[in-house]
Design brief:
Strand content: under 5%
Shape: rod-shaped
Structural class: mainly alpha
Order of helices and strands: HHHH
Number of strands: 0
Number of helices: 4
């Protein structure tokens, strides 16, 4: 009896068997294509993340180098002079016993050109002559 069932199934599946195999292969192939596409998309995403991180690392290394240069500058003798200058100039600080004078600079007035006065007919006498007149009156 089992032989009969098997032969009837074989007879029934005979013409369709090739189509089923082709469908199965197509389904499995589509699965692999979709999986490969997804993996390629993830790889592209990860690659862009790596590029962004490398740019951030380069920027941070530049900042670190700048800070190291500042540290080297601050370890020198010039640092104390620099701090004193900034404290005096920007913060108006002074050493004990010193007096801070704040000077407000006004802009220079623009010169006004005036016409020279015309010489008068009665010019005053020179200064030495006026002194002589004053001293002569006292004596």
């Amino acid at each position: 009896m089992t032989d009969r069932i098997y032969t009837s199934i074989s007879e029934w599946l005979g013409p369709i068997r090739g189509r089923i195999m082709i469908g199965f292969v197509l389904i499995v192939g589509m699965y692999f294509v979709l999986s490969f596409g997804e993996q390629a998309w993830r790889a592209q995403e990860l690659e862009s993340d790596v590029t962004e991180r490398k740019a951030e690392i380069t920027e941070l290394q530049q900042k670190r180098d700048s800070l190291e240069q500042q540290i080297q500058a601050y370890h020198s003798d010039q640092y104390e002079t620099y701090v004193a200058q900034i404290a005096r100039r920007d913060l108006n600080l002074a050493y004990p016993g010193e007096t801070v004078m704040l000077v407000r600079w006004n802009e220079a007035p623009t010169p006004v050109v005036e016409n020279e006065p015309e010489p008068e007919a009665d010019d005053p006498p020179p200064n030495w002559q006026r002194w002589m007149d004053i001293l002569a009156r006292r004596s």
